Task: structure prediction
Amino acid sequence: MKHILPDLSFKYNELEPYIDAKTMEIHHTKHHQGYINNYVKALKNNQELLDMDVEKVLRQIDNVPDNIRQAVINNGGGYYNHRLFWTILSQKKSEMSQELLDDLVDTFGSLENFKNEFSNAAAKRFGSGWAWLLVNDKKELVVTSTANQDTPFELGNPILALDVWEHAYYLNYQNRRPEYIENYWHVVNWEEVSRLYKETK
Ligand code: MN
Result:
């Protein structure tokens, strides 16, 4: 199968002032593209894996040969994580489903508590990584974070993600990761998050 950089559903400048156009452009065309290129390079002698979607490869990571496994975790993770991330960003104001709202309140006490817990996970991730809202195999909503480009599949299915690598915010926010995290809530595509949540039911 072809491994192609996915188009975004918004223009690079449409998430401003929360995420700036230059950051979006570099993040998409350089960083995301770079992960895809290096993923394809790592699998160049493995047509069977190259023919599969990256998500499937990552979910069965033990089937990937030892000598390329870490390269697949790193670059396949970067490929998959960003592909998901772009779909849950939006320039338009959107509403979450009543079902997701009710379950977030049941799980975390309030929507505010959920956002605080997620923001803390994102802020406290040391170095580079991602914050996640997952649905685990008991169908519970869980907040967690992972290092580097590690995917969270062992813990659950992701429905919300936030990239906290410096490349995601440094041009605009420099070292102010908490401010970037706070502004992220303005550009979450809750319709898509709700759709992903429904798919886990
Ligand atoms: Mn990134």
In short: The pocket of manganese (II) ion is lined by residues 27, 31, 82, 163, 165, 167-168 (CB under 6 Å). The radius of gyration is 17 Å. DSSP finds nine helices and three strands in the chain. The mean pLDDT is 97.
